[in-house]
Amino acid sequence: SYGVMLLCGAAGMGFGAFNEIVEFVATLTVPDTNVGGYINTGWDLVANMVGAIMACTWIKLRYAAANPSVSSVMESEPPLS
To answer: How many helices, marked H, and strands, marked E, lie in the chain?
Structure first.
């Protein structure tokens, strides 16, 4: 369902954001960590979002292939608002 895909996408992006916090703490506490700045953080977050979108798409396609009768019901589900 869309709720499961939303949860998986949010969890993936959340883990990526947690990793960025770990990198930030490392730059504050450990000298010479060689972790990039804002551009590095931005690209990491973009990559996390792209990965989450790809995972959600894969989940939907795989579920639709395994359950053809249910996938048509999912198509008619109203969008989250």
So the answer is: 3, 0
Q: Residues 2-44: pLDDT tens digits?
A: 788 888 889 989 999 999 899 889 888 988 877 778 888 899 9
Q: In angstroms, rounded to a whole number, what is the distance separating the alpha carbons of residues 61 and 55?
A: 10
Report the C-alpha gap between 6 and 8 in whole angstroms.
5
Q: Are 45 and 20 in contact (CB under 8 A)?
A: yes
Radius of gyration of the chain (CA): 18
* Closest among 64, 58, 21 to 41, alpha carbons compared: 21
Q: Which residue has the higher pLDDT, 45 or 37?
A: 45
Sign of CA dihedral 49, 55, 57, 60: negative
